[in-house]
Amino acid sequence: MTKQKKRFKAVIDNQTYTIIGQESTEHMTMVTKLVNDQLNELKQLSPQMDSEQAAILLAVNAISDQLKKQEQLLAALKKNEELRKKAIKVTELENRIQRIEAIEVEAKEVLERTGRSEVEIHNHLEAQQILNEERKRNIQQKTSQG
User: What sections of the sequence does the record tag as coiled-coil (predicted)?
Assistant: First the structure.
């Protein structure tokens, strides 16, 4: 749903302007105040500058600031995307670690159940091998019973 356009009467550098837009009155009041403050500051810094020159300089400064902010935003978005990708990788690694730990726990349970609790598991590959051997024994037992 789009916002309804509003009319706002702004007094900038003693000139009245009607601004049509979707922003709130509070926003436009703040914009008007900042424009007047910056115009006054420019005129104080260079008293020989007329209103038109000050307005053009203010516009140049505003566009320059806008471009800098856009660059900062793009850099922040890029950094955010990089961090999101890293977070996904970290989550994937955490999930792998949990699966490996579960395999190791299950392998230790198999060793205890089969009376081989003295056997040490050095890595997840050994743990997986123990589970594979146990599953193979279970399948062989079922086929010999059936």
Answer: 60-113
Pair 130, 106: CB distance under 8 Å: no
Nearest to 122 by CA among 111, 133, 136: 111
Query: At which residue do the structure tokens 């056997």 appear?
Result: 119
Side chain identity at residue 29, one-letter code = T
Phi, psi of 21 (to 5 degrees): -170, -175
- CB atoms inside a 10 Å sphere around CB 107: 22
Per-residue pLDDT tens over the stretch 11-35: 999 999 999 999 999 999 999 999 9
Those residues with Cβ within 8 angstroms of residue 104's Cβ, 6 or more apart along the chain or in another chain:
121, 124, 127
Give strand ranges (E) for the chain: 6-12, 15-21
What secondary structure letter does DSSP report for 22?
Answer: S
